[in-house]
Amino acid sequence: MARAATTSDVFNAIAEPQRREILVLLRAGERPVTDLARALGMTQPGASKHLRVLREVGLVRVRGAGKQRLYGLDARGLRPVHEWAGGFERFWNESFDRLDAYVQDLKQAKEE
User: Fold this and answer.
1) Helix, strand, or coil here: 9?
2) At what angle do helices 33-40 and 17-26 cross, to 10 degrees?
3) What's the gap between Cα 14 and its chain centre?
4) For residue 34, which of 44, 21, 42 has the smallest C-alpha distance?
5) Which value, in Å, is the radius of gyration of the alpha carbons in the chain?
6) How far does Cα 79 stand from its chain's mean position?
7) 14, 77 in Cβ contact below 8 A?
8) Alpha helices in 1-112 (DSSP H)
9) What is the pTM of this model?
10) Beta-bridge partner residues of 72
């Protein structure tokens, strides 16, 4: 099966752990690339490369602020991931229902 291009597929873009870490860091607010690079322990070009991919799939936006470029999270780009993961909700709900029933049975057996 051919692999989708990283720059056009949000799933491939977030498959890279450091890109996911960038998204986590940006949840707290906008940051310049230098702060992101320092927080991730990588070079600025390395962080910029990851930010470019995240921008191309619509997960990160950038704006100018004086001499700096501030990167921010654009969570709307995560919609395909959210919708895909939501397809497993029934599985988890059924699993939690079975776990709840098991715990209730244990409690009842302990009381008897």
Assistant:
1) coil
2) 120
3) 6
4) 44
5) 20
6) 11
7) no
8) 10-15, 17-26, 33-40, 44-56, 79-86, 89-111
9) 0.77
10) 61
**Whole-number Å distance between alpha carbons of 18 and 25:** 10
Six token digits for residue 92: 């988890």
Residue with tokens 């720059």: 7
The label of the residue with tokens 């996911």 reads 20
Q: Which helix (H) or strand (E) holds 65?
A: strand 60-65
Read off the pLDDT of residues 60-103 as tens digits, 9 standing for 90 and up: 999 999 999 999 999 899 999 999 998 898 888 899 999 999 99
Instruction: Say whether 50 sits in a helix, a strand or coil.
Output: helix
18 forms beta bridges with none
pLDDT in tens, 18-39: 999 999 999 999 999 999 999 9
Tokens 């070079």 correspond to 43
Beta bridge partners of 41: none
Residues 57/45/70/26 CA torsion (nearest 10 deg): 60
Residues 51/60, Cβ–Cβ less than 8 Å = yes
Task: Name the 3-class secondary structure at 27.
Answer: coil
